[in-house]
Amino acid sequence: MISPDTAAIVIDALLFTFLVITALAIVQLRHLFAVVMLAGVFSLLSAGLFVSLDAVDVAFTEAAVGAGISTVLMLGTMALTAREEKKSPHPIFLPLLVCLVTGAALIYGTLDMPPFGSPDAPVQTHVAPDYIARTPVETGVPNIVTAVLASYRGYDTLGETTVIFTAVIAVLMLLGWDTKNRSLARNARRREEDREKGDEA
Amino acid sequence: MPDTMINMDLVTGHYNYWLVVVLMMTGLFITVSRGNLIKKIVGLNLFQTSVFMLYISMGKIKGGTAPILTDDPATVYSNPLPHVLILTAIVVGIATTALALALIIRIRESYGTIEADEILEIEHQIDDPDPSPTNPANALMARIRGNR
Fold first, then answer.
1. Does any CB of chain B come closer than 8 Å to the CB of residue A32?
2. Contact with chain B for residue A121, Cβ under 8 A
3. What is the block-wise mean pLDDT of chain A (201 residues), using blocks of 10 residues?
4. For B76-93, what is each residue's pLDDT tens digit?
């Protein structure tokens, strides 16, 4: 029998391996349909990882929103724009250097973090036990995440709804109406015509 | 500080964070090195999901369970606060993605391309016209005119 701890590490390592492979495949591929599909796979794998990290609410939101809605939106955009990525003429040396330096700095930063899963890390000992203790008494909701989201931090959720509302209005303003006057070339032509008219007059 | 170069406690205690950083940097690399706008957004989403993983990793307690109340008073719950924060972040993330994709569709309608380099060439051509036929921007402009 393997211990639950070992099993958890094996599952984590397996999911991370798949995630890294998927991410590298996204870097390599230039066919946008494959890229978008792999982005959906990445989201689904990360949802699996969230389950193994005890974040079930986050997992199903990520599966629905990340693997579902955003894949649909990207496929729609792809159908309206282009299917193939053109080869970039720029050398990848500078971006690679920037990423390696940033990554090295971040990894150096994690060395000071408390070990993964430690129960006496500062993040576990501050207000979280208080929320866990007060939730059943004050709200009666068994799911603590729901209680915090809807009850204790309800205004944050209202703010989040405002963000979505703003985004929907912005998307409608960009795509919703007035499809005729959008072409840059046509507007440029119109400006030329106006100028010619001005010259004649 | 560890005596040896490879300290197993350090590795098992931090490998999660390191792998998240690797994924994060892959997303950043796609965003900065690729010219295709859709691929840039995919890279940004990768980066974003990796940040979510970092936050959720920090809330995990070994031997803990999902923060849904049980009858057993000895149950250890993982920290619910990062979960709440990230739920909000996922929803805000899809809102920004949708807005970015709408902008890409508009850019394609106006410029006829979603490659950042070609858009820049057209922009230069509009600001400072160079009528010579060798200028690649003129071919692009002609293509947009042909599309209409």
1. yes
2. yes
3. 79 92 93 94 95 92 93 92 84 91 94 86 86 86 88 89 94 77 62 74 63
4. 888 999 999 999 999 999
Contact B60, A85 (CB under 8 A): no
Residues B127 and B101 in one domain: no
Whether complex ipTM tops 0.90: no
Say if residues A31 and A84 touch (Cβ distance below 8 Å).
yes
CB contact under 8 A, B14 and A53: no
Compute the count of residue pairs across chains A and B with CB atoms less than 8 Å apart.
297
What domain range includes position B24?
8-111
CA–CA separation, A146 and A57 (whole Å): 9
Tell me the CATH number for domain A1-87: 1.20.120.1200
Q: Which residues pair with A31 in a beta bridge?
A: A84
Whether B13 and B75 share a structural domain = yes
Q: How distant is the Cα of A137 from the closest Cα of chain B, in angstroms?
A: 11
A130 touches chain B (CB under 8 A): no
Question: By the 8 A CB rule, do B57 and A116 touch?
Answer: yes
Say if the Cβ atoms of A143 and B60 lie within 8 Å.
no
* Cross-chain CB nearest to A82 (options B66, B99, B114): B114
